[in-house]
């Protein structure tokens, strides 16, 4: 706990009184500093998505040099990363609810940055598969801790907007990955190999991983400027040295509480995961669609789709978080779920139409609308799960949410599109139709699941008000 947190907590319960203190009256940190913290966290998320998404623009040269197909490529883009990213998020979520969230994030940044750079050393499919797992291991530490921090820095009626700004990192990072990756590919396109100091001869695409991975270590240093906020509305135990430690909630109690809200949690997680499935499928395969079907170069689509991510993606995620806050303030308790429903329904025609339009520029225009709608969920969803969970369970509940949304979205999204391309259409040039088919099924299903979760979600909001550890 930070010096600021301890000083405020001591006023609530001086040494010598009841050792168990409920911190319910602690003021939120100043808005200026709270937004600074969100900015640092957003920067970390941006770096994580650059490291995660850069692979999507390197599909062609990696397939060529490692002799792999679309399905194997999708495993590198999705499952290799998502498998450990999702499973390790669960124990990390438990740590988030008890230990320094800043420290957890710092360790995670160092791990994923080093493994991203290590991807530049891969000479075989399995080498790259293992290093992508390492990237996932490191990145698993970020969002559960960040969601918990944001929830303690902002009051409930501001939390959705703050979550939206944090999740801007997804699309700022993706956009920069596409733009930077496209520029680098353009620079090295005339050379199949390059020679680097110490490392020696590498494929040209491997240089990209060194360039995007190592700068992340600077962000880890910046995280030392972030203070741990007071955990709002929880019970803490005063230790012998006078400091306060968070009173741990047994795992069985967490499981029992989530189980008591099972329908609300499940519908929330699965509904937003299906939106995420479409998002990650588009992010992974849309560049290849432009390259294969419209003859664009990697540099051209990298720059164009990067701009789409930086504009439509950023606006969509902030708008979704803001709209959830507005609906909440207007008394619509399940407003954040309704944001997801609206986004899913409105996104269908744009996503389905893309492969049926012959002009590449028109397809890019459709991708702007598609991106805007599916990104709305990234501001609303984390705020929605945070507000139905007690503070001392938020890290674990966020980890469960990230487990499901990333296993379905990130783990299956790219692979489902690739499987449809390889085994249904049996033609890699039909990847655009694969995207349309997957979106046409997943988006209406997402809206239906979220609708089914509205009533249970409202009940969960009432239940959390009466919870005592």
Walk me through the structure.
The protein is mainly α and 469 residues long. The protein has one domain (3-9, 27-229, 252-463): Growth Hormone, Chain: A (Up-down Bundle), CATH 1.20.1250.20. The chain has 19 helices and 5 strands. It has helices at residues 3-12, 31-53, 59-66, 70-96, 101-119, 125-139, 142-153, 156-188, 206-213, 216-222, 251-260, 262-294, 298-329, 335-353, 360-375, 377-387, 394-425, 431-452, 454-465, and strands at 20-23, 193-196, 200-203, 234-238, 244-246. It has a 3-stranded antiparallel beta sheet with strand order 1-4-5, covered by helices on one side. Strands 2-3 form a two-stranded antiparallel sheet. β2 (193-196) and β3 form a beta hairpin. The radius of gyration is 22 Å and the shape is globular. The two termini are 20 Å apart.
Structure characteristics:
mainly alpha, 19 helices, Growth Hormone, Chain: A, 3-stranded antiparallel β-sheet, 5 strands, globular, disordered N terminus, two-stranded antiparallel sheet, 469 residues
């Amino acid at each position: 706990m930070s010096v600021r947190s301890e000083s405020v907590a001591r006023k609530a319960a001086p040494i010598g009184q009841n050792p168990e203190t409920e911190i319910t009256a602690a003021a939120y940190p100043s808005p200026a500093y709270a937004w600074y913290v969100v900015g640092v966290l957003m920067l970390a998320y941006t770096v994580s998505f650059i490291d995660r998404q850069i692979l999507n623009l390197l599909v062609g040269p990696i397939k060529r040099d490692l002799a792999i197909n679309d399905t194997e490529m999708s495993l590198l883009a999705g499952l290799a990363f998502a498998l450990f990213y999702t499973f390790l998020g669960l124990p990390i979520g438990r740590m988030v609810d008890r230990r320094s969230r800043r420290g957890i994030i710092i360790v995670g940044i160092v791990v994923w940055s080093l493994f991203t750079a290590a991807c530049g050393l891969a000479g075989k499919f399995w080498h790259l598969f293992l290093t992508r797992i390492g990237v996932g291991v490191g990145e698993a530490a970020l969002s559960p801790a960040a969601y918990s921090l944001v929830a303690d820095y902002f009051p409930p009626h501001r939390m959705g907007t703050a979550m939206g700004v944090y999740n801007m990192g997804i699309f700022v990072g993706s956009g920069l990955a596409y733009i930077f990756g496209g520029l680098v590919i353009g620079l090295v396109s005339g050379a199949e190999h390059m020679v680097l100091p110490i490392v020696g001869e590498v494929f040209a695409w491997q240089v990209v991983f060194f360039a995007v991975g190592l700068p992340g270590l600077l962000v880890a240093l910046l995280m030392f400027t972030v203070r741990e906020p007071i955990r709002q509305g929880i019970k803490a135990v005063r230790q012998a040295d006078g400091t306060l430690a968070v009173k741990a909630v047994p795992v069985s109690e967490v499981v029992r509480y989530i189980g008591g809200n099972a329908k609300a949690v499940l519908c929330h997680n699965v509904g937003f995961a299906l939106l995420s499935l479409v998002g990650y499928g588009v992010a992974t395969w849309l560049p290849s669609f432009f390259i294969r079907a419209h003859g664009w170069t990697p540099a051209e689509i990298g720059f164009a789709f990067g701009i789409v991510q930086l504009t439509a993606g950023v606006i969509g995620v902030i708008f979704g978080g803001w709209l959830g806050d507005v609906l909440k303030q207007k008394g619509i308790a399940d407003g954040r779920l309704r944001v997801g429903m609206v986004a899913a329904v409105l996104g269908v025609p744009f996503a389905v139409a893309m492969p049926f339009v012959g002009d590449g520029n028109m397809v890019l225009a459709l991708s702007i609308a598609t991106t805007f709608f599916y990104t709305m969920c990234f501001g609303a969803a984390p705020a929605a799960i945070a507000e139905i969970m007690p503070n001392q369970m938020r890290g674990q509940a966020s980890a469960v949410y990230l487990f499901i949304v990333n296993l379905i979205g990130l783990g299956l999204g790219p692979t489902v599109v690739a499987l449809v391309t390889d085994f249904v259409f049996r033609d890699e040039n039909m990847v655009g139709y694969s995207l349309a088919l997957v979106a046409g099924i997943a988006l209406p299903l997402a809206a239906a699941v979220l609708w089914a979760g509205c009533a249970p979600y409202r009940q969960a909001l009432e239940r959390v008000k009466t919870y005592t550890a």
